[in-house]
Amino acid sequence: MNTPVTQIRRGVAAEWTRTSGRSFLWTVAVPLAHGLPLLVTFGIAAVAERFATIPGQIQVTSSTTTNSVYWVITLSVSIMTVTAAYAHAGQWGGRTGDLNAFLFPRTWTAALARWIYYGILSAVSTLVLLGLVMSLLPRLFPHVYGSVNIADPAGIRFLWTVPIYAFAACGIGIAAGSLIRTPSAAVAVLLFWVYVAENSISLLPNGYTLQGYAPFLNGVAATGQEMAFLPRFGRTGSLVYFLVVTATLFTIAAILPSLTNITRTITTAVHFKGRLRSAHGS
Q1: How far apart (Å, rounded) are the C-alpha atoms in residues 241 and 251?
Q2: What residues make up the domain containing 44?
Q3: Phi and psi dihedrals of 148, rounded to 5?
Q4: Domain-located, residue 280
């Protein structure tokens, strides 16, 4: 039977097949999502360690666990989120759109399948990066990062909150791809939202109040990362808030239009059937 569960399972398998080999996902997105945070993190750490070991007046503040994986949270998650948006926005055009409509008559199942696929990939990627960063920083750069400990409460919180945040963020990417059906535009809107809008909204009247509801800032604060932004709902509450926002956006963008189309199709079919009966009766 062509049930929603079957279509979702088929969609995940189809996305795996589509992206396997030398695709953009594995040749650009995944290496960038892993390499860029590591490059920035260890590059900054190397410079800081060098300054910390130079005799003289330069003072370098030691870093704690809560400030050790910032670039993993911000860069890796953003890269995978825009990759998910790009992939889903690209399904609507030309022959690809016709093929998707034929294979997935319930369009929300294709959206959910992509969210699962890219969300799991993002969660696993961030978990690997967290382990590498928090394990290697204190060993390679003990003067500055000697207090970083993957097993302390902050490190343990990172290990479960960041993958959840990464998975959920891909859902927002899929929602953007559903609403903005041009890949480049979907990516541009997401990047503007994450890096410009949420950080500059504080400049507006009552901006700090509005910023308290910024989804991505709440998601980052929920991980335990040190930041100037104060989560309005507490750390765990901010994570719940981010998940609720993600589910709401995904429902509005991917599920409700599908249900509307199904209702319209059923209504049309019933109306057409009634007209046929009337024609036969006359």
Answers
A1: 15
A2: 4-272
A3: -70, 130
A4: no
